[in-house]
Design brief:
The structure is a homodimer. By secondary structure, chain A is of the alpha/beta class. Chain A contains 13 helices and 13 strands. In chain A, helix 4 crosses helix 5 and helix 6 packs across helix 13. Chain A starts with 6 loop residues before the first strand and ends in a 19-residue tail after the last strand. The relative contact order of chain A is 0.19.
Chain lengths: 417, 417
């Protein structure tokens, strides 16, 4: 059997966007447009739902210069979704659409839920003897995908968080009246992002305490420690993950009653305000709660160039591996151990290794008291935030990509498969 | 009488810090250190309170390379205060300290309250025949100082706000499920900062509605308009000033019961959360409230180079004008009318023009409905955000100035005056 497979390619973006997800998009789109085997490059509106609704864009119609601006355009340019596919019905519809457009390459850019979608699509197409190569392209600021050293999107969010914490820490100490600052950082079940706040130490302004979801949160112990630090140095900056829970597994944010997203995840938020109130009552100190909210995942102006380059490479590699015959895999990163300096290489990971699973921060990368990271965490995270991006700026403001998003016409085949 | 006055100089920073206040500090310190008439350059810890407590730093002891890093170091490097001087007692103490260190030049970097402090110090020294030149150096992200075209600090905060709103707006529309986003922006009594969110239009992602304190806030009209926009385009981004009030003058944030700062200003906050709740209840839409909080005033990584240059120039000019004999003035900016492109020149403004006064956004720069800015506002604000800064970055993180802050020893004079 030859590895050559001629046909169209479909690309889609899923889950929460990142600062660099569109760099992966550019990696896929550019490489696919240049590949002789690929007849058409389609993008689905709003992830897999765009396939279900038959809303595909013909990306060959886009201006190449605009496509290139995707390298520094935050958020999912094609739109995203949080949709868990209904197995038989949705998969049959996906096959129908794939046949309609002769889609032989499918690239899905997302996190662990999206890799599950990939896995199901791939299995269904195989079962129905439809020849199509399915590759997952990783992205998530949460950095919780199993089997890869790290995920595109993480480095930029980490850089945003570390820089912002350093700046806020400088601001917080200007008055001699003292202050406790609580910075709430994203991360439902893992502390990768919150731990990155420690990198603010490289700017001379590290946080004093770091609380991650991996360790049950003990409010009394926290209050005692924060007050001691506050009394010692007249300020205390606390970096805290939105997902911290008490020893019974209850979210400290107590937001369990609120709405859930399409995957059944609870929508958290408001922890900074809640915790600030607790601290104010317990210590009498001036307290300020700051929630980094969406800013940390869309702050493309502060994206790490290492992250941008790797996001592009992930997209490019996905297409190259698919062309060479790979399918049912996710692009992953492997860090060269013991290399002088940072070096990561691409490897291909079976989708079921990462689908629906979550990678936590190793216990030994968190200190014994559970309120700071160890040097091993810092050594891991630091290379990922390096590199200043060279985005296009006009009038002092970012110039984002503006895609025409021309709806794909139904092709004049079907060709046989 | 010659203009030559030999003696020491004292510099201090007051009020809320900005991303570029230390660029003004560098302008003052560098120019003063190079001036033959100036015998010593002191910095007061925490503004005027450092003078009262006799905690002065000898800035001649600092490493010149570290001082230069002040150009891109956010927040007040010497510390700040919000202290309203008690007239007779504090002024007598200030004179005592000035005599002790032979201070003949006093530069105070702050907003309208600080200019009032300047005015009082200057009047008291004159009344007591103590020869000392007093110059105010403007700073405030609020941009509400009267008599100057704009204030150093504003352009950088405006750039941060416009960029963040553009990024958040891109992020908010990725899902097809629809969303209303409320972005809370600083500004107690004027809408200069909130209006700057309109510049996000240059990045292709303007806000839909802008509410400023100059216009009484009508909750019903707002809900109606937000819902209409949301229904039309499946999203609505609202930029809202923390200081908006209803037609009775009550803050919408309803934070009136909370603590006040040293000047008697109410501490606002929490408006985004409150308003989000109102909108959610009224529309049933998914709503997200984002408070830019301290981030907008300390985000030096995104400082406008125009703002940095002007902040430095303000500090430098303050020293130069003082050396030439000026006193009782504030450095101000005058924009050249009708010039091709943006051009501002330094002028000296009597302190009583700006002390304790507030400049609002002109009514004609706000649309009739009171929910957006007019082109005149955009033309005014845009040049101030232009220019990308070239800060020093190490390990992907900002390299801020680290001052030694060596306490000034009591000099071995007094010399006669």
């Amino acid at each position: 059997m030859s590895n050559k497979l001629k046909g169209a390619c479909l690309f889609a973006q899923s889950g929460g966007p990142t600062s660099v997800i569109n760099a992966s998009a550019y990696g896929v789109i550019k490489t696919a447009l240049e590949a002789p085997e690929i007849t058409k490059v389609y993008g689905a509106a709003h992830g897999i739902t765009g396939t279900l609704h038959d809303t595909l864009y013909d990306l060959g119609e886009e201006d190449p210069a605009e496509l290139k601006l995707l390298m520094n355009t935050p958020s999912s340019a094609l739109g995203s979704c949080r949709y868990k596919i209904k197995e038989e019905k949705d998969l049959a519809r996906i096959l129908e659409i794939f046949k309609k457009y002769d889609i032989r390459y499918f690239f899905y850019n997302g996190g662990n839920d999206s890799m599950d979608t990939c896995l199901k699509v791939e299995g269904f197409l195989q079962k129905n003897n439809y020849d199509c190569r399915v590759i997952g392209v990783p992205k998530t600021i949460d950095n919780d995908l199993l089997g890869t050293d790290h995920c595109p999107g993480y480095g930029s969010a980490a850089k945003y968080i570390a820089t912002s914490v350093a700046e806020v820490n400088r601001d917080a100490v200007v008055y001699d009246t003292g202050i406790i600052v609580i910075v709430e950082i994203m991360g439902r079940h893992s502390g990768w992002l919150t731990g990155a706040s420690a990198l603010a130490g490289f700017a001379g302004s590290p946080p004093d305490l770091i609380y991650m979801p991996e360790i049950p949160f003990d409010t009394e112990a926290f209050l005692k420690k924060a007050e001691r630090i506050y009394k010692e140095k007249n300020s205390c900056l606390v970096a805290v993950s939105e997902g911290i829970r008490d020893s019974d597994g209850c979210f400290i944010s107590e937001a369990k009653a609120s709405a859930t997203d399409g995957f059944g995840h609870e929508q958290l938020g408001g922890l900074a305000a809640r915790l600030s109130n607790t601290v104010k009552q317990a210590t009498g100190a001036k307290v300020r709660g700051i929630e980094l909210s969406l800013l940390q995942r869309c702050g493309a102006h502060l994206a790490s160039q290492t992250d941008i380059d790797e996001a592009f490479l992930a997209g490019k590699s996905a297409v190259e591996y698919a062309l060479s015959g790979e399918s049912g895999k996710m692009v992953a990163f492997e860090r060269a151990a013991g290399a002088a300096g940072y070096k990561c290489e691409i490897m291909m990971l079976p989708l079921d290794v990462c689908a629906n699973k979550e990678k936590k921060v190793p216990r030994e990368w968190i200190n014994e008291a559970g309120d700071y990271v160890e040097q091993a965490f810092i050594d891991y995270a630091l290379p990922l935030v390096r590199g200043e991006n060279t985005r296009t700026v006009e009038n002092g403001l970012p110039r984002f990509a503006n895609l025409k998003k021309i709806r794909a016409a139904a092709p004049s085949f079907p060709t046989g498969d």
